[in-house]
Please model this.
Amino acid sequence: MKKPPTGSLLLALIPFVAVCFSVPLWDRVYPLVLGLPFNFFWLICWIPLTSLCLWGAYRVQSRSQEKGAAR
Amino acid sequence: MSPSLVAMTIIFGIVLVGAITGIYSGFHRKMSLEQWTVAGRGFGLVFMWLLMAGEVYTTFAFLGASGWAYSRGGPTLYILAYLTLAYVISFFILPEIWEVGRKFEMHTSADFFRQRYDSPYLAALVAIVGVIFIVPYLQLQLTGLGIIVEVASYQAISRALAMLIAFVIVAGFVFASGIRAVAWVSVIKDVLMLVAAFSIGIGIPYHYFGGIRPMFYALTQAKAAHLTMPGSTAHMGHAWYVSTVLLTACGFYMWPHAFGSVFTAKSGDTLRRNAVIMPLYGITLPLLFFVGFTAILVIPGLKNGDLALLTMVRQTFSPWFLGLVGGAGALTAMVPAAVLILSAATLFAKNFFRPLFKPSMKDDEVAKLAKVMVVVMTGVALYFAIYSSTTLVGLLLLAYAGIAQFFPGVILGLCWRRVTTAGVFSGLLAGVGMAMILVFTKHDPFFGLNAGFVALCVNIAVTVTASLCTPAQPNGFKEQADAVAVGD
Model:
């Protein structure tokens, strides 16, 4: 397996930190946001944000592949 | 007509339409899954999104997630997290799996192990472990069907009888139509499911509280602790959450049917782009949590949380709508059950029985054996479904504890040159053994951690240690590739 570019790995790490490892920081009811408990709101937010991170990772990968092909 | 008759008639009507669609498309060979995906590009973006968003509503999400939101509370949030992170992992590993899959013409996850580690025995072990842990997943679907019939018949038909009916329908469905049927039935199911999820997820909190915001306000006044971890459980705190999310996110694509689907993709790049948008499909999933949370305030004290969603629907809407939701739910259980049974039966016949016991078997004999396995496996799942009382989410977590044990063999096989057959073999045995021991001796969670995750750590440790203790061996993915010498 070719090692994925570091940039894409770092971008992929963001959602892991945000929705998994940092759970003690956001697992609370208050403040309610848009009527939702805070932990609920936080996770829902990270659904599109994860897509965004992966989109970034995709861009980084395609760029490094192009560079590899040009070489 | 009595309410139960109305609801049951509609459910059976929907199931019948689904079954006929399945069988009909079975007659027309062209309706392949691939056809469906290719046709998908003609559907337009919005319609595709709707279909894919309907796809996330499995029995597990539909009855199980709302049931856990009702009975456990906060810990249920792990579902939102793991579904998101599973795609992050898939972004990196699926294209690689696809690449070697194309090079060596693989069809199943066992083929992957067979090629990489050059061992039919390891492949057979992978096949049989896959088959064993598909049983609880299948049991989940049958239990779901049983619950639907039980609630929709206003408890007139017992759960056991309902599951027996479900067993006959599912097995018949698979026999009559095979995998081709599944694609078109899922279109019906996805559309119905999305309609159901939006109307109940928004409608039910609105009916009782005037909206989602007032519903949560009332819930925080009454039971704020239920909404954070460990919610209404004793041990499902933050450590459990992190370990469970990691376990299930790693295990997500280790399912034999999910792993096999990777090989049908058009290119590695397609898989990567899919992974980018897949998380978005789950964004409507919280609607089901809303129903479970509303149910806490409206119908407290249900013994089985998995009944919460349908009981709420029955109490809030007219019987025909209960029938619609129940029918959609029934298809939602039948379609995945068919896929699970088919991939497990094939795996058993092709990667376990034939190579070990009867290498001379012809392809049509393999197909026959696979059909026998369909009945055997569904029967076993039915037996467990009748005699156990685990929640739907509990069942899936049990299945994940086993299935995720393939992860080290796959990931190390892809990116660590030094991993050996003996290492993966012993790691897999240790992981599965550990998971079974912890779960069956009721040590789940184990010191606050998900038992499957503990087993996965043991698995990785054993795999790495045993690999380093055995002599290095050639990489099954490299040999032939070098011989062909395609510059890359």
